[in-house]
Amino acid sequence: MEKTVSEAITYRRSTRVYKDEPIDSDKVKQCLVNASLAPTSSNLQLWEFYHITDKTILNRMSEACFNQSAAKTAQQLVVIVSRKDLWRKRAKSNIEFLNKVYNKPDLSERELKRKKMATNYYKKLIPTIYTDILGILGYIKYFVFQIIGLFKPVYRQTRLSDMRIVAQKSAGLAAQNFMISMASIGYDTCPMEGSDTLRVKQILKLPRGSEINMVIGCGIRDDKGIYGPRFRVPFEDVYFKT
């Protein structure tokens, strides 16, 4: 029986040691389908998911993750990849989707307005934000928007580094969807930032514009896989109601 959302969140722990017990790759794949439903900036979905089950590649990945137990004992690995470089392709996909949704006769005035606004968003605003040349355009846009921001609220995240953060945030949301989905069916995970990301990209034959968001070990927790009781700073220290 699957856990509720709250039960899955409570159950999820970063598991560093897994049992030598196989897990169902189809179930892991379904959890990745859930990951693809995560919220994402401008619905650009600038992510890719690499599901590793091959033993040879698992061994190479373990080495790239410094042979830490969460990688070495994992039955499978999932690599969340940020693909900011695919913004043009993803924007085009959104436009094609809009054309399909609104491909019907006698559109209402409201529907025509929504289609025009959404289409302009992907044809004009997204290129304005994402287009850059060696980071130079990003800084020009940044300073222009800072000046505009003196007079009214304005979007300020226009530099190359800003857009990388936007893409990474969306990828992180997808990773969380995946890990909670895994917890709901009794599978365990460990998100790892400790890896040689260049080697990971080489193993997976990823293009230069891609970035590793995290490597996630997957399996069933061993008794010694949880290193200690859960610690969180007091909720009152991080909760502010205004």
Q: What can you see in these coordinates?
A:
With 242 residues, the protein is α+β, with helices and mostly antiparallel strands. The chain is built from 9 helices and 4 strands; from the N terminus they run ααβααβααααβαβ. It has helices spanning 5-11, 25-35, 55-64, 69-72, 87-101, 109-130, 136-148, 160-184, 197-203, and strands spanning 47-52, 76-82, 188-192, 211-219. A 4-stranded antiparallel beta sheet has the order 1-2-4-3, with helices on both faces. The longest helix is centred in the last third of the chain and has 25 residues, at 160-184.
What is the compact description of this entry?
The protein has nine helices and four strands.
Q: What portion of the residues fall into strands of 2 or more residues?
A: 5-15%
Number of strands: 4
Structural class: alpha+beta
Order of helices and strands: HHEHHEHHHHEHE
Helical stretch tally: 9
- Quote the CATH topology of the largest domain: NADH Oxidase
Q: Looking across the biggest beta sheet, what order are the strands in? A: 1-2-4-3
Average pLDDT taken over every residue:
96
Q: Could you tell me how far the N terminus lies from the C terminus, measured between alpha carbons in angstroms? A: 39 Å
CATH superfamily of the largest domain, by name, is: NADH Oxidase
CATH class of the largest domain: Alpha Beta
Choose one word for the global shape: globular
Domain module tally: 2
Largest sheet: 4 strands, antiparallel
Low-confidence stretches: none
Share in helix: 40-55%
In the CATH hierarchy, what is the architecture of the largest domain at level 2? 3-Layer(aba) Sandwich
CA radius of gyration is: 21 Å
